[in-house]
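notes to self, project folder thing:

trying the whole complex as one job this time. last attempt i did each chain seperately and stitching them together was a nightmare. four parts in total, labels are on each line so i dont mix them up again. if this works i'll redo the older ones the same way
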Amino acid sequence: MQQYTKLTEQLRSHGYRLTGARVQVTRILCEAPGYLGAYDIYNALKQQGINVGVASIYRVLELLCQLNLVQREEFGSGGEKFRLSQKGHTHQLVCSECGVAKEFGNCGVNPLAKDLENSSGFKIHEHWLRFFGLCPSCQHKQPL
Amino acid sequence: MQQYTKLTEQLRSHGYRLTGARVQVTRILCEAPGYLGAYDIYNALKQQGINVGVASIYRVLELLCQLNLVQREEFGSGGEKFRLSQKGHTHQLVCSECGVAKEFGNCGVNPLAKDLENSSGFKIHEHWLRFFGLCPSCQHKQPL
DNA sequence: TTGCTATTGATATATTGTTTCAATAAGGAG
DNA sequence: CTCCTTATTGAAACAATATATCAATAGCAA
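result (full assembly):
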């Protein structure tokens, strides 16, 4: 998992100790297909017999966010979600059930951005385009 | 405040009783300039000497959301925020410095949504388009 | 006014997030 | 490899937000 190695090296090279908590949280993030909440990570680790305090998980996530290695998001209820930083700006297709997120390519909103800059006086430097829905696998699950 | 009357009539015409809790929560929403959290409403009412249980506030908000009279959002930490429905779905121009948000009109991404449904198998039910930038006033402030 | 029942507030509980602090372990020095 | 410093940790207490339950209440139709 070269992604994982890259992250831990980033931590080291910024002078941070490579501790158990950091290693484990980073590993879970690398293994996850999409967004995870702090308590998702906590439970995943617990299930693997690894105990990392909730506070530490938040601390690691905060640190990884500061280093731009992880992105923090929130959508729907249930607090903030995290995942490995992706290249480029955010164009996502997010499953509102399981949190899986797929990126997609260009979106064609740049002309609109230009118009908005002119009409609003804002200096736009970023945009998100995000679709929410049910992924194929969640569509087939039984509703409880 | 005709907005307020419209909301209460909507409730009545859907067969819901016009109760104290519904009236008060609706009124606060009508008076507010922007987004409010459930506890913001709770405290606003308390300050006016009106007691409405937290549970009821959530119930009223849920109901108003179902009737599409209120929109639920979340940005930043601190849970969900609510405000009266605006026309159209969420297309915002957000100042990354001061948080001011301006809505803007239609965005033309629906064709893209269709394409994505076909190529991904997702069942899309919502989207966000959000631009981030510096609003005119923040452009003139000194950087710290 | 009365009676039915949708609706409520209180309460308990769950979930998410932050703070504090003594104990621990990472990793450089020797 | 061992010691030492101190960055980092986990536990626990706390705070804020959200939901479930249930007996009591208040809307509203008749």
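what i see at first glance: The interface with chain B takes residues 74-77, 80, 93, 95-96, 102, 104, 107-109, 112-113, 116-117, 120-136, 139 of chain A (CB under 8 Å).
need to look closer tmrw
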